[in-house]
Amino acid sequence: VSALAIAVLAVGTYAMRSAGLFAGARAMPPRIATLLALVPAALLAALVTTQVSGGPNGVAVDARLAGIAAAAVALSLRAPFAVVVGAAMLVTALLRLAA
Amino acid sequence: MRSSYRTTALVLGGAAGIVGVSFGALAVAAGISPLTACAMSVIVFAGGSQLAATSVLAAGGSPIAAVASGLLLNSRYIAFGFAVAPRFAGVRARERALAAHLLVDESAALALAQRDPTEARGAYRASGLAVFVFWNIGAALGAYGGNALGDANALGLDAASPAAILAMLVPQLDSRRARAAAAIAAVIALAGSLVLPPGLPVLIAATAPVLAMMIPPRRSFLLAAEGAS
Questions:
Q1: Residue of B185, B163, B181 whose CA lies nearest to B173
Q2: Cβ contacts of A12 on chain B, cutoff 8 Å
Q3: In angstroms, what separates the C-alpha of B102 from chain A's closest C-alpha?
Q4: For the whole model, what pTM was predicted?
Q5: Rg of chain A's alpha carbons, rounded to an integer?
Q6: Distance (Å, whole) CA A88 – CA A94
Q7: Per-residue pLDDT tens digits for B145-159
Q8: Which residues in chain B are closer than 8 Å to A97, comparing Cβ atoms?
Q9: Longest Cα separation, chain B
Q10: Which of A44, A45, B63, B83 has its CB 3.0 to 4.6 Å from that of B182, i.e. a possible disulfide?
Q11: What is the pLDDT of residue A39?
């Protein structure tokens, strides 16, 4: 059963991954192109939100929130990528250590 | 970003590898054999969905519920595929078929951060491959090594991924509409997380650009307080 479940998950996932890559390669109307240009901002914002707030019961508030705030501060100071990620991890880990 | 995407790809790969370790350990704890867990990581290659499906099984859920939650979580790849597709215009079908398997949050985000299509595909491949290699090594370590490595969350590793995505989001916020789309999407994702299964809120949030398009590109009384750009 679990092998079949994994196979279905794998095939379904590949189908969804390739759908946009193949269908999206066609020329599209400017209005759709403008719309799609906004998709990354929306999806990335949604991913940040769910990854920071995600928990077993839908939403959970924990040290990650302080970590992402530290990352935002680092970004506003134009810190390099590794510093931004490092700041988030450090603040999160320190808060958990203190708790 | 231009010349440093390889470093970024390695950092993202390393982070994925550590999540991979926790997946491997969780899968074995849920009664999946180490070999099956490794095979799953290679052919599904979508961390969130693997963790989701495994935790549903571990919690006693049916295989159908496990697969459904995994597929829901991965449904965002449809939108990601459409978003990166312009960077793959004119690329041979065989190459695109291979690239499709490397479509993960990291590769999509890094490709979208590059304006030039050639640079974008380079960043996509580098990050997709780095995540693929590290993810599978991590999963194997976790599956065969068990829980010897301790709690990854104590090191704040669950904050690494959202921070990395935030770093990629900021350069995208280059217009009023983009900022509005991001804000609307964040609200939808948060509200959706309260009532919907994991994965679905992000998919619904991908419709935020439709609402953002109602905002005029230059002037808007709604966002006038932001100041002129």
A1: B181
A2: 67, 71, 74
A3: 9
A4: 0.66
A5: 19
A6: 10
A7: 865 555 667 777 778
A8: 154
A9: 59
A10: A45
A11: 81
Q: Which residues of B touch A71 (CB under 8 A)?
A: 159, 162-163, 166-167
**Distances in whole angstroms, Cα of residue B165 to Cα of each of A32, B113, B154:** 25, 11, 20
Interface of A with B in 21-60 (CB under 8 A): 21-25, 33-54, 58-59
Measured CA to CA in angstroms, residue A98 lies from A63, A92, A94, B8, B82 at distances of 10, 10, 6, 30, 44
Closest alpha carbon to B99 in B89, B114, A27: B89
Q: Give the best residue of B55, B78, B104, B194 to mutate against chain A (max A CB count within 10 A).
A: B78
Name all contacts of B111-118 with Cβ < 8 Å and 24+ positions apart: B111/B84, B111/B87, B112/A40, B112/B83, B112/B84, B112/B87, B112/B168, B112/B172, B113/B1, B113/B5, B113/B168, B113/B171, B113/B172, B114/B1, B114/B2, B114/B5, B114/B87, B117/B86, B117/B87, B117/B88, B117/B89
- Separation of alpha carbons B135 and B38, rounded Å: 10
Query: How many angstroms separate the CA of residue A71 from the nearest CA in chain B?
Result: 6
Of residues B34, B8, B6, B7, the one with CA closest to residue B21? B34
| Angstroms from A37 CA to nearest CA on chain B | 7
pLDDT tens per residue, range B191-222: 998 888 766 787 788 889 999 999 887 654 55
CA-to-CA distance for B172 and A72, rounded, in angstroms? 15
Pick from B154, B210, B149: nearest CA to B180? B210
Q: Which tokens is B42 given?
A: 């290679």
Question: Burial of B186 by CB count in 10 Å (0-12 exposed, 13-18 middle, 19+ buried)?
Answer: buried
Question: What whole-number distance in Å separates Cα of residue A71 and Cα of residue B227?
Answer: 25
Residue in the block written with tokens 């997946």: B23
Residue B15: in which H helix or E strand, if any? helix B5-29
Spatial distance between the Cα atoms of A9 and A47, rounded to a whole number of angstroms? 21
C-alpha count within 13 angstroms, C-beta hemisphere, residue B73: 26
ipTM exceeds 0.85: no
Phi, psi of A55 (to 5 degrees): -150, 175
